[in-house]
Amino acid sequence: VPYSASLLLLWLCYFVLLVTMIIPKATRIKVYKFLFDEGVLVTKKDTMSAFESIPEVSNLHVLMLLKSLKSREFITVTFNWQYFYAYLTEEGINYLREYLALPATVAPQTKTQPATQQRPSGGRGFSRGGDRGGRPDFRRRDDGYRASSGGFGRGGDRPRA
Known about the structure:
Layout: H1 2-19, H2 25-38, E1 40-44, H3 59-71, E2 75-80, E3 83-88, H4 90-99
Antiparallel strand pairs: 1-3, 2-3
């Protein structure tokens, strides 16, 4: 009986190691802080390399943390061209704010409104119409050159019979 019990314990330990992965708390906090600060996390589907945004963190750890957060519906994940794109949900923001002990006033960059900037007037913009800064409009000449027909190709400006 002791032999079968130890064998059962060995198989149980092996199964637990297969299913769960122990990630250091410092690594978890670094990834969670990065995800909370940005609101979005992009990582390559490569378990052997380091995470590009935090070089001291393994990409495998990031992928496992994303899997855990996704199973609890704290993030939504999109997979495209061998890259994972993870977006925080409202529940995820609340969970990370509680886990990292952050105040309620702190929010991810994706949730904050950028300061509106005044556009300089008369600059080189790419707007259609409006003030052209004293320059003549293209194809707006009054002498008949390309005034209404739009060119010579496909029947423009040819005598009609």
